[in-house]
Amino acid sequence: SLVPERAADLAEALAHHLGRLAARADPTTPDGAAKAAAAAAITPTALLAGVTVLRARDAAEQVAAAAAAAALVDANPAIKLVVLDSVAFHVRAGVGSGGGGGGGGGGGGAPSARRAAALSAMAGSLSALARTRGVAVVLTNQVTTRIVGGGEGGGGAAPPASSRIVPALGAAWAHVPATRILLHWGRGGRRLATLVKSPALPGGSAEYAVVG
User: Fold this and answer.
1) How many angstroms separate the CA atoms of 176 and 13, rounded?
2) Second label for 73, Cα 20 to 30 Å away, from 25, 45, 122, 133?
3) Which regions of the chain does DSSP assign to beta strands (E)?
């Protein structure tokens, strides 16, 4: 769920940051005066007023929310960013396990088939939204640990098992987003953002910090 207090913290920090940038400009110039006026108008209250929250309680509601996003953007052309946090939670907990969340596509079929149908429906809706409305769509996914090796060989000693972090929804979903960024821990407790997939940029990592 969205934490309102954290959203307020982000709005406060952004407004403060924009105010500092505007203060560096010369207020006697037209450009500096415009920046100061724009920064003054961007208050935490104004930023939070521009946020619309659709709360999905299960996978079926999540699929429906993704399908309804286009109509929401059409009714509010000022919307330029859609965030789905997270695409994996309800699908894994409800559809994937065959549990109470439902599949968004009826009760029949194996859990894996219902999960694939839910993911396909969301991918189609959100891809069309980004392509036809020019809206940035950001999806957060969960990760899981994949164990590699460690099996018993035929005659020789088995190689030791190793593990790696992989997207929770598998390789099929990993190819859906045009750009993939992995947030993970590096050596020394550093937070790293690694560009794993991009249609135009080379891969690489950058350190980041969570403050405030």
Assistant:
1) 32
2) 45
3) 81-85, 136-140, 143-148, 162-167, 180-185, 191-197, 204-208
